[in-house]
Amino acid sequence: MQHFARALSSAWLLVLFVALFQAEAAPRRHAPYVSEIRDAATFSAYALPVETDDVGKFLIDLKSGGIYYFDVNLYRLHQDFVIQVLFRRPMTDEERTEYFRNYREDKPHYILGYVTHHRAAKRWTFSFWESDRIRPADVRRARDTLLKTFFVQDIAFRPESTRQEELLAELKDIPTVTSDTLYKQADYRPFNTGAATGRLRVVPPGTPYESLLFDSEDIVILQESYPDLPPVAGVLSTQFSTPLSHVNLRARAWGIPNATLKDAATRYAALDGQVVRLDVRGNTHVLRPATEKELATWKQAREAARTVLVPAADLTAHELRPLKRMRARDTRLYGTKAANLGEIIHAKLPGVHVPDGFGIPFAFYVEHLQRHGLHTELEAMLAEPRFQQEAAFRKERLEKFRARIAGAPLDEAFLNQVETQVREQLGGKGVFVRSSTNAEDLKGFNGAGLYDTVPNVVGREALSAAIRQVWASLWNFHAVEERKRFGIEPRSVFSAVLVQVGINATAAGVLVTKNLYDPRDKHTFTINAKRGLGLSVVSGVTVPEQVLYDIRYPGARVLSRSDDATMLVFDAQGGIKEVPTGSAAPVLAEARARDLSLAAAKLRKVFPDSGPLDIEWVLEGEKVWIVQSRPFIDGAR
């Protein structure tokens, strides 16, 4: 064992020596650390750009009182700097344990912090790791040291976690600012970088969501928060949302440039209607008239659109199958959403719960169309030249066709069967009636928000109406446009229905198993949350609470807080209603964020080939319910 330990230590030293040699051999115009920073150029040399922020790091030696501003590009972690510069050798197990005590209240050796220039908000802050249990006295000590050695004097303490936010009541003698405030003050925030050429459309404020109609070559400036939009070439929005709003998810899936810019409408009003070039970058953007060459190149590239093949629907099954008897292979019978939930139930993951439910297979949707002659109506509509060529005409025809599906009565024997299953399997409780098509939750096409969900359905007539609404939503205009963009053959899509017990959530939201703000970080999840039911979390109408949770070094970093005065809850008579939130407390305390992230980490093992997961979750008190899991689409261009 000792020989093994010596060999391992020697190998580690060799790796470290090579790394240090390479670092020394690489061109570097400054020392690995300095004891003061007196100008912006020096700070830039030692900091790391992360989207619209420049992040630097410092270490204060509590014994000497000295400060080290070290090069973040050389030493990613504070621990790396300590090992390679201060220790100049690997830490022993005892020294590593002692080092991590510096994140507790009583710090034996160091204060480990960050200095950040928030360019979009035009503010400077200092902060500490979200799991650092730093005390107010050490926050003040850090600030005093920064004021003596840093060129910016207007620097505020920024708490990174709920626990650190609690310190603000004791730190009223120094400048402070929350991440939530900075997020909402920023005048620019990129959500998907890239470039596009197209005709600029400035959408007037107050334009109803229902009237949004664009060409796929349009670059749009939105002045309202919308729950969704048809396919376009690029998006600038004057209203802030989060990376997980439906509009921003669309932009990622389409691989188009997308950013928030508060003054976009006024700044670029003169370009409205012109063909422009939009280039969204991590820290800035460019919007200018396009050249003829750019326009020709763009059109040529757009003609080479990708094509997604959806699973072929099996129309032979007529069983209302419980989720606990479904597996992933049942996608061809019951749709991907239901099949994925069945796979999660089968995995029997500790601490992960799925609401009880059952699937209505594709066959009943097809039979509903055939019973009322809607299948021939659909075929005639799809074959119509104007439907294929004109978006406005297509939207009008789809609206009428959806009304025909929703208005045609259900087969009574089928409705009896569904009603009996709700009563006997689900206890007659209010249910969620959800889409589960073969054109959603796929690795190349997640279809987030394209189809309808009807919450808290109570009673026979409401159940009938909800099933027909979900079937009809297969032909939502935005769903048709989205599938068209991805080359999905319209005759290949079918709608199954998922019926689940409704969870009257205390909180709900979405978790993505990746850091959407820093793609280099492989151990942090992005969580969006709101109180009550999660139906508005991804709508983009309001900003939810955003938390980044690090599962390697457990800790929750708060990006923004939900400031909604109301939330959605179940109505005893069926449906939902809006009520006051009744609490100013954070939606996700540290323990809640941890439990959600641990549950999400388990789901990655259930779907190992899916890449990052997009997970919809619900909290009932502290109990974690998973209501959807699908691949997160990042839209490679």
TrEMBL record:
Keywords: ATP-binding, Kinase, Magnesium, Metal-binding, Nucleotide-binding, Signal, Transferase. Residues 333-631 form the Pyruvate phosphate dikinase AMP/ATP-binding domain. Gene3D superfamilies: ATP-grasp fold, A domain, ATP-grasp fold, B domain. It is an enzyme of class 2 (transferase). Its cofactor is Mg(2+). Its EC number is 2.7.9.2. It holds the Pfam family PPDK_N. Residues 1-25 form the signal peptide. Belongs to the PEP-utilizing enzyme family. Catalyzes the phosphorylation of pyruvate to phosphoenolpyruvate. This is Phosphoenolpyruvate synthase. The lineage of its organism: Bacteria, Pseudomonadati, Myxococcota, Myxococcia, Myxococcales.
